[in-house]
Design a protein that fits this description.
This protein is mainly alpha-helical. Helices cover 71% and strands 1% of the residues. The protein contains 25 helices and two strands. It is globular, with a radius of gyration of 25 Å.
């Protein structure tokens, strides 16, 4: 405690000769965390949601635009107006493979170096790779499909990094009572990204209608313009969001529990959460406290306890099982709609008119699926996630999806026999999209961002998300090789049956995870919070240790906040 000779100032700071005791620092930490957890919803929370959400909008646009662009690429570079099985699989699976790498690497780096230092870096990678795709060309030594696969892998690394960073930043800034809704609102931008990809697809195809119709089959030149515009425009929202990501403040929880600077974290909370400002005093003293530190030994010790290990097993496998179906459907909507003859144009398949009608119908089909299932599912989750809870939503989602895929698989022939009953299949297909998002697609993103201690929160979220993308990779490789067994698109019904099995397994993995609603992040960490700080360093460091680059970023912080 501060002595009578060295009383605390009115702002709670202490003179150099008076060191706060361990008990004071420990109490200050708990009080600061309580201030975050009980903070009223403010304009700052809206800014966090928008800055993180625009990234997810870009992620979804870039990932799922290939669902439409792959058909365009087939007309331009494929034999017989379509990409080969391996070419189609390659351009679709490259991004999930990159996601897996990015989620693991950026998840670890965000815990090691800080959320702020990495936020924006992943967006730069996405922007550069998206622009590179749009400018890719064919050459004697390099095929364009190979070039696109490389660029989409690089883009995937950036997109993968966005998952743990956006989840953790929104989680650590949120108040306990609204944390689920804030994280869900961020993730729900994914639905609008898929919707935008379909809208842009319709616009570019319609804009080049006359050129397509006037060109000989397969209208390669105008369709080439179409896919380049569709893909390239994906970098625009990223460019808009980049500045704001570079200027977002570090989360007080990272400053407090990883950098172990309780005093600075307390000031950050007071400035950022209560007033919406962010100021760095380069001459402020730095006092490090002694608290659990991230290391491989500590990581193994923490997850050696079954109560902690079962959580990461549950979050990782649930995401893996979900993405088997989510990406199996999401990246192949066009293939499945074609397989059931929904919206297929009639007439000569080697005419330019057929090319135009087919591309337009594919875009419209993706638009319908987004509006009818994907977007409503996110927002129903938003309404219920902080009242009903994460675990019940995930259990319900996996259960309903199991039933839907069983019906769509085992009754596939009857549901696609005539145009009238095909509409029933499309309705069930929209329901699967709805219950993926009002279900495990949302909760598998939210729960890993809450259920682990600060020093491993981003790493654990990255591991869980990477497990999901491993499921996406397995799904794409399997889908591409299985779908034409027995004839073109003849294996779709059995793929639906396979999806139902993985949804069933997701029910059991969900039983391993805790309910996280209305609980603080520290309570969910399974670590005792009283006595969390065990000591404090006696030395203080003064003066600016910032590089010129961090000085520039500090100036941007002050300007923005």
């Amino acid at each position: 405690m501060a002595s009578a000779d060295h009383p605390a100032s009115e702002h709670g700071s202490y003179p150099e000769k008076s060191q706060p005791t361990v008990a004071v620092l420990d109490e200050r930490r708990r009080a600061a965390l309580a201030e975050i957890d009980n903070a009223p919803f403010s304009w700052f929370h809206i800014k966090v949601c928008l800055v993180a959400g625009v990234g997810f909008f870009t992620d979804a646009y870039d990932i799922f635009a290939i669902n439409i662009a792959a058909t365009m690429l087939g007309y331009v570079y494929g034999k017989g107006g379509a990409l080969s099985t391996w070419q189609s699989t390659g351009v679709k699976v490259a991004t999930p493979v990159g996601n897996l790498v990015g989620q693991l690497v950026f998840g670890w780096l965000a815990d090691r170096l800080g959320r702020k230092r990495m936020y924006g870096v992943e967006l730069m990678i996405m922007i550069i790779a998206t622009f590179g795709q749009a400018l890719s060309g064919q050459a004697p030594a390099v095929g364009i499909i190979g070039a696109l696969i490389v660029w989409r892998f690089i883009m995937g690394v950036g997109i993968g990094g966005d998952y743990p960073l956006s989840a953790i930043i929104s989680s650590e800034f949120a108040a306990t009572r609204s944390r689920g809704r804030l994280m869900t609102a961020v993730f729900a931008f994914q639905g609008w990204g898929q919707f935008a990809a379909a809208i842009i697809g319709i616009i570019v195809v319609s804009a080049y209608k006359d050129e397509i119709l006037d060109s000989p089959y397969p209208a390669a030149k105008p369709v080439d313009y179409c896919w380049r515009l569709l893909i390239g425009l994906g970098c625009v929202p990223g460019l808009i969001a980049l500045y704001f990501r570079l200027t977002i403040p570090e989360t007080p929880r990272f400053t407090m529990d990883v950098e172990r600077n309780v005093t600075q974290a307390s000031k950050d909370i007071e400035n950022v959460v209560t007033t919406g400002t962010y100021v760095v005093d380069e001459d402020a003293p730095i006092q490090r406290v002694k608290a659990p530190r991230a290391s491989w030994a500590d990581f193994r010790a923490y997850f050696s306890h079954w109560e902690n290990r079962k959580v990461i097993i549950g979050t990782a496998y649930s995401w893996f099982a979900l993405d088997i179906a989510f990406y199996g459907l999401g990246l192949n909507n066009s293939v499945i709609l074609t397989a059931i003859n929904f919206g297929n144009p009639s007439g000569n398949k080697t005419s330019s008119l057929y090319v135009y009608q087919n591309l337009k119908n594919i875009c419209i089909g993706n638009l319908v699926l987004s509006v009818a299932g994907l977007i409503p599912g996110y927002w129903v989750s938003f309404l219920l996630i902080d009242t009903w809870g994460r675990k019940p939503i995930q259990l319900m989602g996996f259960s309903v999806l199991t039933v839907l895929f069983i019906i769509m698989g085992f009754a596939y022939d009857k549901l696609t026999a005539t145009p009238s009953v095909t509409d029933a299949f499309v309705f069930l297909y929209c329901l699967t999209n709805f219950f993926q998002n009002f279900g495990p697609n949302t909760t598998t993103f939210v729960i890993p961002g809450e259920a682990f201690p600060t020093r491993y929160r981003s790493t654990a979220h990255g591991i869980s998300a990477a497990s999901g993308k491993l499921g996406a990779v397995v799904s794409q490789l399997g889908f591409g090789q299985l779908i034409n067994i027995g004839g073109t698109n003849k294996f779709v019904k059995h793929i639906m049956e396979i999806f139902s099995f993985f949804m069933l397994t997701g029910i059991f993995s969900t039983l391993l995870i805790p309910e996280t609603k209305q609980k603080t992040l520290e309570d969910l960490s399974n670590e005792e919070q009283r006595g969390y700080i065990t000591g404090a360093s006696l030395s203080r460091q003064y003066g600016c240790q910032c590089t010129e680059f961090t000085s520039i970023r500090r100036g941007l912080n002050v300007l923005f906040f």
